[in-house]
Prior knowledge:
The complex is a heterodimer.
Chain A: H1 2-6, H2 13-30, H3 34-49, E1 52-54, E2 60-66, E3 69-75, E4 78-81
Antiparallel strand pairs in A: 1-4, 2-3
Chain B: E1 4-9, H1 17-30, E2 35-39, H2 47-50, H3 61-65, H4 71-74, E3 76-77, E4 84-87, H5 100-110, E5 116-120, H6 127-134, E6 138-143, H7 147-162, E7 169-175, H8 177-182, H9 188-195, E8 198-204, H10 207-215, H11 226-238, H12 254-262
Helix pairs in contact in B: 1-11, 5-6
Amino acid sequence: MWDKFTGKKRVTSREVAKQRLQLVLIHDRSDISPVMLEALKADLIAVISEHLDIDQEGIEITLSESRGRSRLLATIPILGRRTRR
Amino acid sequence: MPGRVITITSGKGGVGKTTTTANLAVCLALLGQRVVAIDADIGLRNLDVVLGLENRVVYDLVDVVEGRCRLRQALIRDKRLSEMYLLPAAQTRDKTAVNPGQMVEICHQLRPDFDYILIDSPAGIEQGFQNAVAGADEVIIVTTPEVSAVRDADRIIGLVEAGEKGPARLIINRIKPDMVRRGDMLDVSDVLEILRIDLLGIIPEDEHIIVSTNKGTPVAHDIGVPAAQAFRNIARRLRGEEVPFMSLGGSDNLFGRLRRLIAPRSDTH
């Protein structure tokens, strides 16, 4: 009732369940574990750092799903291009 | 026409496979079909007690496979329905007592004499499950609107697809309409969106199921009980009839939509 006045939407346990399930199933279906993603992230940092200055803390590697296919999404913030020697 | 072999499975245990198998067998027999229900859960036999036939078990599935009796001798006729039979599981053996080839052979032998051969699968994805689906023409997956059951159902759907058993269909069991309305339970549309599979039926949580299991008389016999109606609807859908789904508190049903049109905020807290 109070939420109705404040306009705040209660996050129901149903929504939480749905989101958690969707996420865990993306991993189950693709057979890519969170541990594997972490390893991939470390390798990506190593390779990309040779060419670009990147914000290692800001890197996000996630799995998502669209149109029935798993997709790997990497968001890698660049700090600045290294000058050629 | 030779009988259809339909396996009822789930991945997760305790979601209602045996109850579903027993009740669908009763409903199909009530529709005049010749039905045999096979308990493939070797070592954890239960379909006999749910059907109230535990005192009549003489031979079992493993006795048939190992040649101690003929298939016909192991079939137990139901107390109430003359066209319904049970092939019980062995209780003192394990899943390795039978192999998938032997299950296929048993189904092959039963096909000419029955319209429906329902197989109650054990939980899990190991040999017991492989045995249960080996001879299947169709697979029914039972789940409940819970994270763990839906996750396991997804795994089973993948295995059934890989086994080329045709598209599996889903039964969502133990829906609590009140919890769905409060937003505390996944609704039918959520589960379907996640699993992307055809819906065969929805069954409300119903205390009558426990009472009927206590007595060994499947709830499908009780006319007027919501769960009984749900099972009867499913049996008719298996027969190819178009039967509308019950409304169980989800946002996607006509009743809910109408109610929100009339009183847009009547069910928010």
